[in-house]
Amino acid sequence: MLLKEHDVISMCPLRQGRLPSSDVQNIIFLVRPNLNLMDLVADCTLKEEEQRGPKKEFHMFFVPRRTLLCEKKLEERGVYGTFTNVDECALELFPVDNDVLSMELDFSFKEWVIENDMTSLYYAARALMRLQALYGFIPSIYGKGKGAKLVFEMMTRMRRELSANEPQITPQIDNLVLLDRSVDLLSPLATQLTYEGLLDELYGIHNNVIKLPPEKFTKSSDGGPQEIATEPAKFLLNSAEELFAELRDKNFNAVGGLLSKKAKLLSAQFEERHGAKTIGEIKQFVDRLPHMQASKKSLATHTSMAELIKEVTDTEAFLEALQVEQEFMNGIETDKANPYIEECIARQEPLIKVLRLLCMQSVTNNGLKSKLLEYYKRELLQTYGFQHILTINNLEKAGLLRIQGTKSYSSIRKTLRLMVDDVNEQNPTDIAYVHSGYAPLSVRLVQFLAQPGWRAITDVLNQLLGPTVEEIQQIPVGLRKRRGSGSSIQSNMEDPRVTLVFFLGGCTLSEISALRFLSQQDDAAVEYIVATTKIINGGTFLQSLHEPLKPPSS
Question: Which of 156, 125, 127, 174 is nearest to 479 (CA)?
């Protein structure tokens, strides 16, 4: 809408080849500072220059920051001087929903963990400084992991550079929790079992949009034969849709009953038209009709989506893989070659599926014995090809596959109650419902921080990877909120504190659901807002580390 208000005629993704033909004078490129994209920009610019007609003006805006390397690349291609403007557009955080912000940096984890490129961490620090410029400096900062420590140090340096130009705003956010993804590598590997989480696992949600097979969503408008659709059915998923807002964070086993209840309620509302006798009653029904019709359409859509999920979750393959995951998370037979993983390799199941289970076994076993790790690597390379040796190397660098160490997952699991028996999926009482028994370690850390505080779990924090951050930012006396002090971030129920949880390296939809669950409890003293470098799932997380070896060019 904003672009249309400024007379932007059309938008198109940057890809190889010519831009869609249009009689325009100005062409604006909005791009990430990526060297590969500079080649695409140069090709498009050169091809547009070759076309006859009025001379066009080219403008370049880097998001979120221009870089010298990219400008040099454009100079090498001979197109830098073609641009009328080269500037940056500091869009660091994008609102994904009412309580979720994402930087949309797909390879943040890989860049700083594997390639030692701290650029994304700098972007995160700058994004947090921009938030503080708008909503005041955050009084208390907590963090865990090397990335969290680095971001905090960058923020401290940036604040020092502001000197007397600090915003004089009363803090709207009480606490910031920085969580390095390396601290909790298990949660993104576990299959998400919430409604939205499964949609993402099975079909992928990108920028709140999901594409689904069209068969279940195509109907004939005139009651004749069903139309044959070739294009995927697209749906926008966010909390603006009433039914989705209610379904998204539920365990999938609770979705069917809720949809059935909604269907009966809606049917009863439509039946009310038979009881409307007076003009006033008829008018009331007619006034409610648009909302009821929208609800009916929404119900039909999500019923079809639930059917698509159920077709997969009822399969033997899905249930077998889920059972192996549950065994690993419970610490059952994690120290020897797993028959199911061996079987998946023998059947040449998708590589990402196999790697996901392998990494889960490694993480829950505190690493694998040298002989077992070498056996798995040999089996993978002989079955899937030696071009995947770089991917395996990346997984080892990230700590997802490693030689057995001294840190004990079993003691962390017991202390933090990561595994909960007999979890209630219909009416949950614990965050473990999002994985039907496993509570995300990252969210458990946030929960313990709220009550009783991290001092109660010092031994666990010492076992987790990376340093711990517990810092107080000085706030001018006149801008401070009047509240009680304490070692935890809990406050009284009448005045809940706002806590921003920032995941560095990506977070899953299940982790977001778990944080929402904590906020919605009757005795909740904290309201959580989530920020992340990227929303991920096990597949996309490992895919970002996937790096097949390219054959040498002949």
Answer: 174
